[in-house]
Design brief:
The complex is a heterodimer of chains A (159) and B (83). Chain A has 159 residues and is of the alpha+beta class. Chain A has a single domain, classed as Aldehyde Oxidoreductase, domain 3, CATH 3.90.1170. Chain A has 4 helices and 8 strands, in the order βαββαβββαββα. In chain A, the strands form 2 sheets. Chain A has a 4-stranded mixed sheet with strand order 1-4-6-2, sandwiched between helices. Chain A has a 4-stranded antiparallel sheet with strand order 5-3-7-8, with no helix packed on it. The radius of gyration of chain A is 16 Å and the shape is globular. By secondary structure, chain B is an alpha+beta fold. Chain B has one domain: Ubiquitin-like (UB roll) (Roll). In chain B, strands 2-1-5-3-4 form a 5-stranded mixed sheet. Chain B is globular. Classes of the chains: A alpha+beta (159), B alpha+beta (83). At the A-B interface, helix 2, helix 3 and strand 7 of A face loops of B.
Chain lengths: 159, 83
């Protein structure tokens, strides 16, 4: 098990180093999957910063619950979630998840599940800041749909 | 009952504060929203679209009809945009 499976931090992180550290001790695992979200520039190309606000205390609780749910639902050896807050520059890594499993199907599904849940259930809010304005990023209906899909039969874990 | 209330993102900006302590007899989250909305224009605007408001009691996401009995900290915020 990774030493600190849930991390919420303002500091930048090195996704390669994080993944290597995660993969050091995974007994029985044959597959590791990771996802990294990076700060996307606006279509207009003038994003100065993305400010990420969060709810200290609830954030850690919510991420731990989401990770526990993924571990219970899929055959995972381990899972980690790292999420930043504060001001980020375009192309800065925002967050990452990694999963390890005996076989790839559980590792892929586990990572996707973690992402779908933390998109809509982890208390983070993004604000896009340009030289002239700032806008709170609205939640997307697609993200809520992706979350709801995990409750339907076709996304239940294979027996 | 004494409650700590926290606001996040555009709710915080519209209300004009990140945190406050209130004395209230509200029975549910919805009652508390109605009480806060009647305070002034900023609060009224912040809570004007109920579909855009999420609430948590003591770090747990809850529905609008959730009872406040035993709550210490209530938070209001827009739909979350993690990831």
């Amino acid at each position: 098990m990774t030493a600190h499976p849930i991390r919420v931090q303002s500091a930048p992180f090195d996704m390669g180093a994080e993944l290597n550290a995660f993969a050091v001790s995974l007994p029985g695992a044959g597959a590791v999957v990771s996802f990294t979200g990076i700060t996307r520039d606006l279509a207009t190309g003038d994003l100065q910063a993305m400010e990420i606000e969060h709810y200290p205390g609830m954030t850690e609780t919510a991420l731990a619950a989401i990770r526990a749910e993924a571990l219970a639902r899929f055959q995972l050896v381990d899972a980690m979630i790292l999420h930043r807050y504060g001001p980020l520059a375009p192309s800065d890594p925002i967050m990452m998840v990694a999963t390890a499993a005996r076989h790839r199907a559980d590792a892929f599904a586990g990572a996707e599940f973690l992402m779908d849940y933390l998109k809509s259930r982890a208390p983070f809010w993004k604000k896009e800041i340009t030289a002239t304005q700032s806008n709170w990023v609205a939640a997307r209906a697609e993200d809520e749909d992706a979350l709801a899909a995990w409750s339907t039969a076709d996304r239940q874990p294979k027996a | 009952m004494k409650l700590d209330i926290r606001y996040f993102a555009w709710l915080r900006e519209r209300v004009g504060t990140a945190t406050e302590t209130v004395e209230t007899e509200a029975a549910t989250i919805a009652d508390l929203i109605a009480e806060l909305s009647s305070r002034d224009a900023g609060y009224a605007l912040a809570f004007s679209d109920p579909g855009a408001i999420r609430a948590a009691i003591d770090h747990e996401l809850v529905a609008m009809d959730a009872p406040l009995a035993g709550a210490r900290e209530v938070a209001f915020f827009p739909p979350m945009t993690g990831g």
